[in-house]
Amino acid sequence: MQWKVKAEHWVTQLTDKDPMKKELSELLLNEKVAEDCFYKDLEFGTGGMRGVMGPGTNRLNMYTVRKVALGLAQYVVGQGQSAKERGVVIAYDSRHLSKEFALEMAKVIGGQGVTAFLFDELRPTPLLSFAVRNLQAFAGVMITASHNPPEYNGLKVYGEDGAQLPPEAADIIIDSIAKLGIDLVQDPANEEQLATEGLLVSIGKAVDLAYMEELQTIRLNKEVTDVSIVFSALHGTASKPMRQAFETFGFEQVEYVKEQEQPDPNFSTVKSPNPEEAQAFELAIQYGERVGADLLLATDPDADRLGVVVRDEQGQFNLLTGNQIGTVILHYLLEEKVAAGELPRNGVVLKTIVSTDIVTVMAEKYGLQTVDVLTGFKFIAEKILTYKETQAQTFLFGFEESYGYLIGDFVRDKDAVQTAVFMAEIAAVYKDRGKTIYQVLQKVYEMYGFYKELNTSITLEGKDGSEQITRIMNSFRHTPPLTVTGSRVQRIEDYLSSEMLECSTGKITTIDLPTSNVLKYYLENGAWFTIRPSGTEPKCKFYFAARGQTEKEALDTVETICDSVLKRVQTDVL
Hints:
Elements: H1 3-13, H2 19-27, H3 31-38, E1 48-52, H4 62-77, H5 81-86, E2 88-92, H6 98-111, E3 116-119, H7 125-134, E4 139-143, E5 152-158, H8 167-179, H9 191-196, E6 200-203, H10 205-215, E7 229-232, H11 239-249, E8 254-256, H12 282-291, E9 295-299, E10 306-311, E11 317-319, H13 322-339, E12 347-352, H14 358-365, E13 369-373, H15 377-390, E14 394-400, E15 404-406, H16 416-432, H17 437-448, E16 450-459, H18 462-478, E17 483-484, E18 487-494, E19 499-502, E20 508-510, E21 519-523, E22 528-533, E23 539-548, H19 551-573
Parallel strand pairs: 2-3, 2-4, 3-6, 7-8, 7-9, 12-13, 12-14
Antiparallel strand pairs: 1-5, 4-5, 9-10, 10-11, 14-15, 16-23, 17-18, 18-19, 18-21, 19-20, 21-22, 22-23
Helix pairs in contact: 1-3, 4-6, 4-8, 7-10, 11-16, 13-14, 13-17
């Protein structure tokens, strides 16, 4: 359907009382912007949807939220009376309209006879995942756009195990949404009436307390708490739960970045509320210098990602990469569990295909297996569920390079709250032993080799940008490089076709993972790089990794490969 037809349909269906009608009328005066708002429907993937807020089918607004809510409700209704009574848990973050979207979601779901459990105020994503399991609900919804810019919002849908929906369930909801057509879902049921009927239930402190109790289970050393910490919530959801967590663990030397403590949908003190980026730590570093802190921690707005800054050998603050944080956590887990005689013989480490390979070598030393999954924490959660059901292996640790970690599986999504207190424990224990996290990390590299990873992305917005991303993927898929910086490509993995090609022999084998638009190239010098479109932002993402005998050798290799690949993109594709 042409975008103008959809736009006219919206204008016709919106009432004069709806402020979106005036906004849409003004927007239609700019044809290029209007086309971007309507040229496609905002996609509901296996985890949910995310987009810029505003009127249109390609924007997040009350009507796109209601349509997802109705599709989800119809899915739950189709699973029977028990599923309807178990209901859907709904949480929301600090973004613009998050609370309003959460209430709309609850009213639509309740209006279909499905119990909606709505948090009494904003909560982090891991609390939503935990609540689904704790309340034995059938599903969950988190209103969030993670660390995207302020103009974005979104939602993630969870299954009964507390993990983001598996593809099969997502497909059913997508079909339900498609059958609704282009008609707008009008005002849902009355809030007060739903509450009276028990179809809209407020939840809060009881779930928080249960989470804090479970949090205690990840502690390995309860005696040492002498460490100085600076924490920032980056204007998001983590202030209250992190205060509770630090107090519960006995960490008393914690400074909170006051300028970033309160929820702020504009994220006014940072360029981006992303703890992966050094600029997000500027205020925290000022606090750290003033109080002589050992450790700086920051969570993204929905508190599923954690950034960590430690002091280096010169005493300067150094932002760790997501891979380095995962390496530090696994090293500590392995050593402490071995010392306590608690390392499971059938233990397994889970990581994504774009995360560092050093953890595989580390796990092997202790006789443990590392399993690679596709990007997206739902695939880690899916493995955890399988291991629980089969008892074939015991989950030890899961992480992805994009600053997401899970130590205790009472949550089934990445959890910055539990990771933050665990990092505080690690820092305290090492400090008690006369070491720093940075020193331990260097020791790990000396033991296993110097692994260096580098990630970057190209932002390509709108319809034209989407086509450019497709061209990049098609270029590397159909005309793959044979050599990169003088090193031959040995193996190519195409996760869309589920095929692995051995370049020297032409032999093709099947990849036993779900299909995904991802390409991975292995070079004869041991390095690799991966290309994929982002599932949540208008970006094409690139991942590079290399190993060297020295840090400089590894860094030089990975930077050279990065430059070569990006040069091809800029000169031959864009």
